[in-house]
Amino acid sequence: MESSICFLLVAFMALFSSFANATDPGPLQDFCVAAKSMNQSVFVNGFFCKDPKLVVADDFYLPRYNRPYVITNPVGSIVTLASVFELPGMNTLGISLARIDYAVGGINPPHTHPRATEIITVMEGCIRVGFVTSSPAKLFTKMLCKGDVFVFPRGLIHFQWNVGKKPAAALSSLSSQNPGTNRIADAIFGSKPFIDDAVLTKVFQVDKKVIDMLHAQFV
């Protein structure tokens, strides 16, 4: 009897493993156009691996990530990414990190990460965070202070806003070595080339002068 149970358990695990291995790998870029021939191009979903004999401790090390960064942009925040580009040891591990600094009143504008779920930990100050679900749109928002944690589900629009009276900082962990960032305002009004004015005036129900004014902020 026990041998039969063990056999069924092993068979189930093997079946489950085959299903798991049959799924597509998570993408590390926005798209991967199929080449008709292997001679056309080669692109790895990640980076080629360094010879293990040449790997050193510094490949897994990023110094001085705790220092505040200078904010000079009009939105009042700066994101300093620690991805595979800055930390080669992250390659194929499916993670990345970001430090976000906020001036008083600073905002990390509404954006998405198409390839990652994000979890944020406040290091200094207090910020209001939120994300919006897919249709029907619903806003989930929360005030966070030092030590608080919040999660933004993969692909959903989210933001952070420093509502305190002093600068704030947060540490963000993401479930991809190359999560991607798509800022909503930049994507709509700052794409190259611009989205056609007729589309934007129809969608936002405003005069073309308003669209032109918004385009001008991203030139």
TrEMBL record:
A single MF term (Gene Ontology): manganese ion binding
Leader sequence residues: 1-22
Binding-site list for oxalate: N108, H113, E118
InterPro entries the record matches: Cupin_1, Germin, Germin_Mn-BS, RmlC-like_jellyroll, RmlC_Cupin_sf
Residue ranges that the Swiss-Prot or TrEMBL entry lists as coiled coil: none
Sorted UniProt keywords: Apoplast, Disulfide bond, Manganese, Metal-binding, Secreted, Signal
Annotated transmembrane regions: none
Entry binding sites for Mn(2+): H111, H113, E118, H158
Domain Cupin type-1: start-end pairs: 63-212
Pfam family, one: Cupin_1
Cysteine-cysteine disulfides: C32-C49
GO cellular component: apoplast
Entry's localization field: Secreted, Extracellular space, Apoplast
Protein family membership: Belongs to the germin family.
The protein's name: Germin-like protein
